[in-house]
Design goal:
By secondary structure, the chain is an all-alpha fold. The protein is built from 11 helices and 2 strands; from the N terminus they run αββαααααααααα.
């Protein structure tokens, strides 16, 4: 019982700390929303870390708390009737499910988001032949993320994140950034160092930010869509750039951050509350029955 309480306390403490981090990124605008006042923030760049370190329920609490605190700032008000936390919450929840091996639930959540978007009367699947739509659907990048999610690329990401990653060896004592001739060797070492972890972060950031964009699009259509139906074509052109910036930012921020965390911290995030049945436990059960 005490172990369970300590585990819950540790998770709550971690959730509170990550809520503070999320608040900072949520308060940092990177682009303007199209058609309405408000900003797209850098919150998606830190979402993978929250999803990796926290279970879905704790991650959602952290996102909700960070969103509400950040909304107190004058340049970052709530614009979706208090539901502004939902896009970030589904992002973190999907990442958390994937790294814990629950890809089926994550895929169903993604499919549900696509279904709700299609069923919304104020959304659109094709934005005009002038933009090659058709044949290109509005959700082309979301469908690409879904393919990545169900593909082998997203398998065993938790293992890739928690495995030890040895430091690459730089043999020359003069191989520093001050020595221009050593830059190729240092860049090669950096690629080797970040290859596995950076690739995992890229997959999580891409799938997470696309379901976040889906949820944001559903909110936008439900609240403002009837006023600005023509703006979907503009969003169609803008969102791939915005989502790419967020994914690149997530790789640059989350990779070194997770690398600095000890393996025990990441490993505990993937703990499964199951105890193997041993001969000692069987003997204890039998003695209890007698």
């Amino acid at each position: 019982m005490q172990a369970i309480q300590r585990s819950r306390l540790r998770k709550l403490t971690l959730a509170a700390s990550l809520a503070a981090v999320y608040t900072i990124f949520r308060a940092t605008p990177i682009s303007r929303l199209i058609g309405i006042s408000g900003s797209i923030t850098a919150a998606g760049m830190v979402a993978p870390v929250i999803g990796i370190l926290l279970e879905p329920s704790y991650g959602i609490v952290a996102v909700f708390t960070g969103t509400m605190i950040a909304s107190l700032l004058p340049w970052n008000p709530l614009i979706f009737g208090g539901l502004d936390f939902l896009p970030g919450a589904v992002n973190v929840a999907l990442v958390s499910l994937v790294v814990r091996g629950r890809r089926t639930e994550a895929t169903l959540m993604f499919l549900m988001g696509i279904g709700l978007f299609i069923l919304n009367p104020y959304t659109t699947l094709f934005v005009g032949r002038a933009l090659l739509s058709p044949p290109i659907p509005y959700l082309w990048m979301h469908l690409a993320a879904l393919i990545v999610l169900v593909s082998p690329l997203s398998k065993n990401l938790g293992t890739r994140l928690s495995l030890s990653r040895p430091e690459p060896k730089v043999t020359s004592a003069t191989a520093t950034w001050k020595n221009i001739r050593a830059w190729p060797k240092l860049l090669h070492a950096a690629v080797l160092l970040n290859k596995s972890l950076g690739g995992a972060i890229a997959i999580l950031a891409f799938t997470g930010t696309m379901i976040e964009h889906l949820a944001g699009g559903i909110l936008y259509a439900s609240i403002f869509g009837s006023r600005f139906p023509i703006l979907w074509s503009v969003i169609f052109l803008a969102y791939p750039v915005e989502r790419t910036v967020i994914v690149v930012g997530a790789i640059l921020i989350c990779t070194p951050l997770l690398r600095r965390l000890s393996e025990s911290v990441i490993g505990r995030s993937f703990e499964v509350r199951t105890k193997p049945v041993t001969s000692t436990s069987v003997d204890a059960m039998e003695s209890g029955k007698s």
